[in-house]
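forwarding from the other thread:

> can someone predict this with pyridoxal-5'-phosphate?

sure thing
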Amino acid sequence: MRDDYGLSIWGENNFEIEEDKVVVSYGKKPSLLQITQEIREKGYKGPILLRFPHLIKKQIDSLFSEFQRASKEFNYKGTFNAVFPLKVNQFPNFVNEVIAVSKEYNYGLEAGSKAELIIAMAKTPLGAPITVNGFKDKEMIALCFIAAKSGHNITVTIEGLNELETILEVHKEFNSEFDDKITPKIGMRIRMHSSGVGAWAKSGGYSSKFGLTSTELLIAFDMLKKENLLDRLTMIHFHIGSQMEEIGPLKKALREAGHIYADLIKRGAIALRAINIGGGLAVEYSQNKKNAQRNYSIKEFANDVIYAMQEIAKNKGVQEPNIFTESGRFIAASHAVLIAPVLELFSQEYTAKSLRLKKKNPPLIEELYDLYTSINKQNAREYLHDAIDHLDSLLTLFDLGYIDLEDRSNTEILVNLIIKKAISLLSKEDSDVYIQMQNKFQEKYLVNFSIFQSLPDFWGLGQTFPIMPISNLSQKPTQAASIWDITCDSDGEIAYDANAPLKLHDIDVTKEEYFLAFFLLGAYQEVLGMKHNLFTHPTEATIKFDNEGNYYIDSILEAQNIMDILEDLDYDIGAIDKQLKSNIEESTLIDNKQKQQLLGKLYLYLSENSYLKTIQASKV
Ligand SMILES: *Cc1c(COP(=O)(O)O)cnc(C)c1O
């Protein structure tokens, strides 16, 4: 019986299992293994982040087509518009693809800082919307004016009254300095009393960091009116938080926002035409039905938004608003998959060959050996318990000085061999005993990647991501697995979780390559990734498909080399280089020929990245 690692729950038909491999459900369905091997053959080792632009397109298509369908079904008069919030992923190989695959939609970008705004101004096609949220100073607002005057369709959302004051100030400066009177559109972010649910709910609600209270909304309205700028107030905005697990809170927020929209129009907000509902569309990360995180579909989401807006407009007798969304996680998560090589299975050093049995062994070790040779399916559980008891006793004997290091090594090897044998004997049936055993004894897989760099939300928030091997899938995985990364930090572990059990194959990685894939890493993980231990963003490759459905590697960007990493930390790398060189040149321990050889090696290593170069299958 094979394990599909929950693909039917989180996979969205983006990947499937064919024979014994994970393949991309697109074009001629290449396997992830084939793609990985092609990249490694070019000399790139260590973990590789694969980007699939067709999956970005799929998400954008699905967002627009569901809203267009719902608008048609409900005969909705407002338009549908969307922007990608840059904070979710600002990497150029992602953003450039977002722009390339969304041409038909007038899809824009959202910025929350000056640097993001510069990306938005450079990359958004003229006419497509740019929205600007977050805290802004005068300089940032001035940048928005520059964008507007260059022809961008830009809306500045004000988060507080002081921002509006700055906008008015910049408006005066820019429009007296220059003849044309061009001012960005203005949005007002509202501080909702409704809020989201889940780990990221803090963005909404009364205690939120963001938005105007109703009192402030009224003051802002009066300020705009007084300055004759009501014709720039086009949008109200809210965002109830990321990874919205259920849709109930959104419906409440939509009603709240809808009433504010209608009220402001009645008060004379002549240009107010849009409600921006922020982001929050969730992604299903769970590999396990009972832990599923999202209880609605994109179709329901679109229906609920359109319906709620239409109802309020009807009841209040105002125009149906244009709808803006800023979903980021939903658009970006699926496009990035990290492939990382397994370097070692920790119990694999325990082989019968490494036993150093003596002519005369301590009696408990003789007994362990008997258990090992006579264990079978019927006695497996009992023998296993006996072995664990013996382990305790033998380790105590060692501490007391009664047995030596060889005896202790024999003990560890035999106990591990017995555990392994017991698991394989019992794994044929998923008996309670087997499940109990898995909860107790796990194989540790050492994987060439950094959790801090590639799955920071696992470390920071306990967010899980789908994990599966990309090959060997026709065999039943027998090892309850915990995953260790290569950082020197004991937090760099994805421990076995009995509620979401991960089982992997018992592979001899000295003979056979074995890669794990970590899915849904395209949202937030890349830029939140930390350089703990100075492991940097991994080598990335963009995978595209030609018209015949053949895949090709569009670009490869190698992970930073060691000197670049140090330069990022503001080390004087010239000085480091000089020091290392003079250490070798001035050494009195070696001759000139050796000095030359060492220098050659040193410079080779400095040009490489920090990830381990070890490759499996003794292919070094
Ligand atoms: C973070 C953020 C988003 C994106 O949220 P997702 O959950 O990734 O869709 C959208 N709008 C605003 C204002 C945000 O702060």
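The first strand starts at residue 15 and ends at 18. thats all i got for now
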